[in-house]
């Protein structure tokens, strides 16, 4: 798996990562529990379903060509010849899901409904080298997220059968892999994938890994412990991150319609003087002063025109912009020019500074805690590495 991602991957580095994942995952399950760890992974899927799907996908990616060679030897040159769909009546589906079209507050089956679903066979199959079996509606239901359950409750028979076929394909992948490598090896790989998932979840809870902007109760707790003095100190070290526009000196030309606005914009693009065109064409009260708005300050909740001004680069004439209004309303158009921009900094005591600083400090504390935990786990662990024969790979 490591070499599939990076052909230069080394055995010792891969082993180190496996050991660290095993230790972190074990600690994570003890501290947070599987429900918390799986909350951000493949939304709506049960944890075991996610791991099983990843296991089958990984094996298929690594050994799919060899599996295909075996399948081509089958009478139908594929799994389809071994599949036997089963008819399920509408009455049987009603016994599981209730009346068709009924309004429901949830998409969960109770124990009686699930037991009934387990009796409804959607597909029978016979894998190569033995392994006859069947896929029931209950099997399909257990492996769905919310969107999948919506399709099941809508009686989408094509979806039911397609999901049953997916499960048979996954069973073939696992059957082939167990015959090739042994059941223990496949179980080891599944545990590795579970460890990786839980270790990544541990990173997410600490504000690290592949989703640093996701929610985390741990980060919320650490952020709440950050003091005003820590925020002020962090702000002084990261002040440049809080540069803001304090005020701009600007002009504008207000035109009654799009055609007029396009004509004036073309004249400006040709080098015409902004103030002169404002006096000649603007319908705003500022026309007499060449469209001068004076200094527009960034304070409170700026109006629409102020927001437009703040969004423009200094010294560049904006494109014509229609004033916000309904699609059928007669709305004027604006062209603005920022002559000078004055920058400043957000106040150290502002809510935005406090939020950004406290989250950054919380992530730093969480990362420090996690690194300390990792080091402590490795220091205390009893690790025995067996000597095994290594092939040319």
TrEMBL record:
The keyword Isomerase applies. It is an enzyme of class 5 (isomerase). Its EC number is 5.2.1.8. Residues 245-326 form the PpiC domain. It comes from the Bacteria. PANTHER family: PEPTIDYL-PROLYL CIS-TRANS ISOMERASE HP_0175-RELATED (PTHR47245:SF2), PEPTIDYLPROLYL ISOMERASE (PTHR47245). This is peptidylprolyl isomerase.
């Amino acid at each position: 798996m490591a070499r599939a991602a990076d052909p230069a991957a080394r055995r010792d580095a891969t082993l180190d990562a496996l050991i660290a994942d095993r230790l972190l995952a074990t600690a994570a399950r003890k501290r947070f529990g599987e429900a918390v760890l799986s909350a951000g992974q493949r939304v709506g899927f049960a944890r075991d379903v996610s791991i099983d799907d990843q296991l089958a996908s990984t094996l298929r990616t690594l050994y799919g060509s060899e599996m295909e060679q075996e399948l081509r030897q089958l009478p139908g040159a594929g799994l389809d010849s071994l599949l036997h769909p089963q008819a399920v009546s509408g009455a049987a589906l009603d016994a599981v899901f209730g009346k068709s079209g009924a309004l429901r507050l949830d998409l969960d089956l109770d124990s009686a409904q699930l037991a009934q679903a387990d009796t409804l066979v959607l597909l029978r199959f016979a894998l190569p080298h033995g392994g006859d079996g069947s896929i029931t509606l209950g099997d399909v239901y257990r492996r769905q997220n919310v969107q999948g359950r919506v399709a099941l409750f809508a009686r989408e028979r094509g979806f039911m059968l397609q999901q049953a076929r997916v499960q048979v394909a996954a069973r073939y992948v696992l059957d082939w892999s167990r015959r090739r490598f042994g059941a223990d090896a496949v179980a080891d790989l599944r545990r590795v994938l579970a460890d990786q998932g839980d270790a990544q979840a541990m990173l997410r809870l600490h504000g690290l890994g592949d989703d640093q902007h996701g929610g985390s109760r741990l980060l919320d707790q650490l952020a709440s412990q950050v003091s005003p003095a820590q925020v002020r100190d962090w702000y002084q070290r990261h002040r440049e991150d809080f540069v803001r526009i304090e005020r701009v000196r600007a002009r504008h030309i207000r035109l009654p319609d799009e055609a007029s606005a396009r004509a004036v914009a073309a004249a400006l693009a040709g080098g015409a003087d902004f103030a002169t065109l404002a006096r000649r064409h603007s319908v705003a009260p500022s026309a007499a002063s060449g469209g001068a708005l004076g200094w527009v300050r960034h304070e409170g909740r700026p109006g629409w025109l102020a927001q437009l001004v703040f969004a423009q680069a200094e010294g560049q004439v904006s494109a014509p912009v229609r004033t916000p209004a309904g699609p059928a309303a007669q709305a004027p158009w604006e062209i603005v020019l920022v002559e000078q921009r004055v920058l400043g900094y957000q106040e150290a005591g502002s809510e935005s500074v406090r939020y950004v600083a406290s989250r950054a400090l919380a992530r730093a504390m969480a990362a420090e805690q996690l690194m300390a935990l990792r080091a402590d786990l490795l220091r205390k662990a009893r690790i025995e590495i067996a000597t095994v024969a290594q092939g040319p790979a």
